[in-house]
Amino acid sequence: MTVARQFTPQGVVLDLREYGSGNVNDTFLVTVGAMVRSAHPPLLDAAGDQRFILQRLNLNVFRRPELVMGNLCTVSDHVRRRLARSPLRGGRRFEVPRVLLTREGRDHVLDPGGSFWRALSFIDAAETFDTIKDTGHAREVGYALGRFHNLLSDLSPDHLSDTLPGFHLTPGYLAHYDEVLERRGVSRSPEVNYGLRFISERRAWAPVLEKARARGKLRPRPIHGDPKVNNVMLDTATGQAVGMVDLDTVKPGLVHYDIGDCLRSGCNPLGEETEAWETVRFEPELCRAMLQGYLLLAQDFLTETDYAYLYDAIRLLAFELGLRFFTDYLAGNVYFKARHPEHNLARALVQFKLTQSIESQATALGAIIRDLR
After folding, report:
1. What is the fold of 2-123?
2. Which helix (H) or strand (E) holds 351?
3. Which of 47, 163, 181, 319 is 20 to 30 A from 225 via CA?
């Protein structure tokens, strides 16, 4: 409550409760009441209750929080300018969170324990889901990512900081995996042996996107970095995508990482947290719907070479996340929040099974990509 009050120039904090299901930061929804008109930057100035998001950044992950905040401001300002110049048609809206300031005009608060807190605007009349409900939902998730990429397509990646060096660079994750294995060893079980074998069989292929970037076939652009299904906000009345949240991972990168991560997240109806990992399947019709929504807007900036690597992106991102979960399990669960010691191992198995399902449908997925070009 004490931190929340520093982002409210006037009025009373009525409620503060945990919000969302993120694996990295601690997120709270704050309700403020009895606000009066004020010119203060947070702009919580209407009569009645107002809400905003309060987050404690995980400084073990985001070691340069000032760069995260800089990227947030750059992206949100650019999106607002683009939308002001070219408003959306058909009654649609699209938002990204904006940074709110303290009473002293700062974009964060450091508490006595050294925790880094920041406040963001709340997207009203919208909700998120952890898994895709149907093809209509899938299309809207694809639309949201396409809209996000389209709005940033004229923003040079040089204007963004790399807040997470090595993020979505699969060769780096493989190197870290090798270090953890050498340093800690491994306690063998059937599931662990499966993971070890799975990674070994694919490690030669894993640098596919980075090799393409090094050869100049793919070029960096502004990316979201974590465009999972539950980072897409849907209008509670219409079901239309109205925004994307969780922009801490925004950085220069390959849009293929975003596309692959979005499809990996959305085309597994059982979700990332299912315990029935052996029954996980990548659903091609959800993939088709999601790509339809995405390419409606992304066709304006994608190149022929970009299309050529779409299947690799879909396959790679499921493998990459599985590798990251598996490595974190071996390291003692130091990166991802875990509810029990085997949690990250279970998550890894889900992604490995999803990768296998993608590989088994390579021909069908290639046909979908060709049909939608």
Report:
1. Phosphorylase Kinase; domain 1 (3.30.200)
2. helix 343-360
3. 181
Residue 350 predicted with pLDDT over 60? yes
Mean predicted lDDT score pLDDT of the chain: 92
Which tokens sit at 316?
Answer: 């790679």
C-alpha span between 337 and 344 (Å, rounded): 8
CATH for 135-372, among 3.20.20.70, 3.40.50.1110, 3.30.420.40, 3.90.1200.10? 3.90.1200.10
Please report, for the chain, the start and end positions of each structural domain, with discontinuous segments joined by +.
2-123, 135-372
Confidence band for 23, pLDDT divided at 50, 70 and 90: low
Q: Give me the pLDDT at residue 47, please.
A: 43
Predicted confidence (pLDDT) per residue in 114-135, tens digit: 999 999 999 999 999 989 999 9
Residue with structure tokens 């659903």?
283
Spatial distance between the Cα atoms of 212 and 218, rounded to a whole number of angstroms:
6
**pTM for the complete prediction?**
0.90
Residue 298 has pLDDT above 50, yes or no: yes
User: Distance (Å, rounded) from C-alpha 25 to C-alpha 355?
Assistant: 27
Q: How far is the C-alpha of 335 from the C-alpha of 342, rounded, in Å? A: 14
